[in-house]
Design goal:
- The chain is an alpha/beta fold.
- It has helices at about 10-15, 55-60, 70-85, 100-110, 130-145, 160-170, 195-205, 225-230, 255-270, 280-290, 300-315, 315-335, 365-380, 405-420, 425-440, and strands at about 40-45, 95-100, 125-130, 150, 180, 185, 190, 210-215, 230-235, 245-250, 355, 380, 385, 390-395.
- Helix 5 links the parallel strand 3 and strand 4 (about 150).
- The longest helix has 21 residues, at about 315-335.
- The two termini are about 30 Å apart.
C-alpha cells in the first residue's frame, strides 16, 4: 500500500498539496514508522484535563446566543445545576465569568472592598500559600492593591493553620474581610481541609469570609460548600468539569452575598468607584438575578451543560472514586520505582494531582527531557511543577481519565525517566503500577453517545 492511495475524494491530498494543511513536504511519500494512525494523546496534565468523550461528541453543538429567547432560562438552569454539584448553600448564587479560574479568583479577591481601606495599611485579606497556584492567588490580591497578609507554608506541606490563627487572633477590630486558601494545591499535589479554617473562624467568632480555590478539586474530589462552610468557591470549566477552557465559576453563600451588598453600599455612600466592571460581583449578581444573562458575552454554556450531564450520568461519587483509583496507580508507580512524592504527609496526598520529586542531582533540564520523551515517543502529556523548575513532575487524574490511561501514563513516565538516565527501578515501578491497576480496574461501561462504530 502506498500513500498514493490517499483518496482525492476525501480532499486530504488536495489540502496538503495546496498547503492548506500544515504538513511536512514529504508527508505523502514518507514511510517512516513515527506516523500514528491517530492524533490522540493521553493527557495527564492538570488542565485542560482529560476530557469526557460525551463532551467531545457534543462539542460541535451550536453555542446559544447571549440574548435570544429562552436563553436566560437555559443559562439559569445550568448555573443551578452547578450549584447543586458543589452543594451550594440555600440562597447562594453561582456566577459564571468568561475566562478561567483566574477570573473567578480576581472577582473574589476584588470584592468586599470598603471605604476605610483607602489610604490604610490595615490588612483586609489573608492568603495561605503552599505552592505555585496559591502563591498566584496571593499575587492576584496584592496586584489589586488590597492590603494582604501572605502566610507562606512549605511546598508539600498542609496549610499553616497555626500561623493563620495567630493573625486572626490579633485582628480584634475585624479588619480582615476574607481568608483565602486552596482546597487542592495543583502545584504540589497537596489536598487541604477547608473545614479546619471554617472551624477556626467560628471558634474565634471572626466574621471573615472563607474563600477557597477549588479549581482542581471541584468534580475531582468531594467538595461541598455547605459541609465545609465555604463562602466563596472558585472553579473553572477545564479541569474536573471535563469541559474546555472558557468559564470561571464563583459560587457564593448567602453570607457572602450580604457582605458584598454591604460593602458596595458603603462605597456608594462614600462616593467611591467600585474599581471593577466585568469582574464586579455586585453587577454580575444583579444581571443574573434580574435578566438571567451576562454583563457581556458568556462562555460556552452549551458544552458546560453536557459536562454536567456527563458527571450526573456517571455519578459524582464514582467520578471522585475514579480519580482516586488513577492516583493510586501513579503513586504506586512512583513508590515502586524508588521516587518520592512532594506531598510530605500521606493524609494530604491529592487524588487529583500526583507531584513526584526528581532524584537529587537531576534538575530542570532532565525533568524537561523526561517530559519530551513522554510526549514525542509515548504520546503522553504530563507537566513539570510550576514555580519550582528543579523539583519534579506532575501526573494528574482529573476529568475523564480512566485507570487504563493512568497505567499507560505511569509506564511512559518510568520508561522516559530511564531513557533520560535517571536512577529509577523501572521494573519494580511498572509491577507496582500494574498491581494497583488490577486492584482498581472495573468493568467498562461507556457513556451514551456515538459508539466506536460511529452509530
Amino acid at each position: 500500500m502506498t500513500n498514493e492511495l490517499i483518496s482525492p475524494l476525501s480532499g486530504l491530498r488536495r489540502l496538503i498539496e495546496s498547503n492548506q494543511i500544515d504538513a511536512p513536504d514529504d508527508f505523502l511519500k514518507d514511510k517512516a514508522p513515527v506516523w500514528s494512525p491517530h492524533n490522540k494523546i493521553i493527557n495527564v496534565t492538570p488542565g485542560p484535563a482529560f476530557g469526557s468523550e460525551l463532551v467531545t461528541q457534543f462539542s460541535s453543538n451550536q453555542t446559544r446566543g447571549m440574548r435570544g429567547p429562552g436563553v436566560a432560562k437555559f443559562f439559569t438552569s445550568v448555573r443551578e445545576a452547578y450549584g447543586k454539584l458543589v452543594d451550594m448553600q440555600d440562597g447562594g448564587r453561582a456566577l459564571f465569568f468568561t475566562g478561567s479560574g483566574t477570573s473567578g479568583t480576581e472577582a473574589a479577591a476584588g470584592s468586599c472592598r470598603t471605604p476605610e481601606e483607602a489610604g490604610s495599611d490595615k490588612p483586609a485579606i489573608v492568603t495561605l500559600e503552599i505552592g505555585a497556584f496559591s502563591t498566584a492567588m496571593g499575587n492576584c490580591v496584592e496586584n489589586l492593591g488590597r492590603n494582604v497578609i501572605r502566610i507562606k507554608g512549605e511546598i508539600g506541606e498542609d496549610l499553616p493553620f497555626d500561623k493563620c490563627r495567630e493573625v486572626l487572633e490579633k485582628d480584634t477590630e475585624h479588619n480582615i474581610k476574607m481568608v483565602m486558601a486552596p482546597h487542592n494545591e495543583t502545584g504540589a499535589g497537596v489536598t487541604t481541609d477547608p473545614k479546619k479554617l471554617r472551624d477556626l473562624l467560628d471558634e474565634l467568632n471572626h466574621p471573615a469570609l472563607l474563600v477557597i480555590d477549588g479549581i482542581s478539586s471541584i468534580a475531582s474530589m468531594p467538595c461541598s460548600m455547605t459541609e465545609m462552610g465555604i463562602d466563596m468557591l472558585i472553579g473553572c470549566s477545564q479541569k474536573g468539569m471535563m469541559a474546555t477552557p472558557g468559564i470561571g465559576m464563583l459560587s457564593l453563600s448567602p453570607k457572602a452575598i450580604e457582605k458584598i451588598r454591604e460593602a458596595e453600599k458603603q462605597l456608594a455612600d462614600a462616593g467611591i468607584k467600585k474599581g471593577q466592571h466585568y469582574l464586579n460581583l455586585g453587577k454580575m449578581i444583579d444581571a443574573m438575578e434580574t435578566t438571567g444573562l451576562h454583563l457581556e458575552t458568556p462562555g460556552n454554556y452549551a458544552q458546560f451543560a453536557v459536562a454536567l450531564d456527563a458527571l450526573a450520568i456517571e455519578g459524582i461519587e464514582r467520578v471522585c472514586e475514579r480519580h482516586k483509583d488513577c492516583s493510586e496507580i501513579f503513586r504506586a508507580a512512583a513508590d515502586g520505582a524508588g521516587l518520592e512524592l512532594v506531598a510530605k504527609d500521606v493524609s494530604t496526598r491529592s487524588n487529583a494531582v500526583t507531584a513526584i520529586k526528581s532524584p537529587e542531582g537531576f534538575g530542570e533540564k532532565k525533568i524537561m527531557e523526561v517530559l519530551n520523551i513522554m510526549y514525542f515517543k509515548h504520546a503522553v502529556e504530563a507537566a513539570a511543577i510550576p514555580g519550582a523548575p528543579d523539583l519534579g513532575w506532575r501526573l494528574c487524574a482529573t476529568g475523564g481519565i480512566q485507570p487504563q490511561h493512568a497505567l499507560s501514563a505511569s509506564i511512559a513516565f518510568l520508561k522516559s525517566a530511564e531513557e533520560a538516565g535517571l536512577p529509577v527501578d523501572v521494573d519494580k515501578g511498572m509491577l507496582a503500577a500494574s498491581k494497583a491497576y488490577s486492584e482498581v480496574a472495573k468493568y467498562h461501561r461507556p457513556l451514551p453517545g456515538i459508539d466506536v462504530y460511529g452509530r
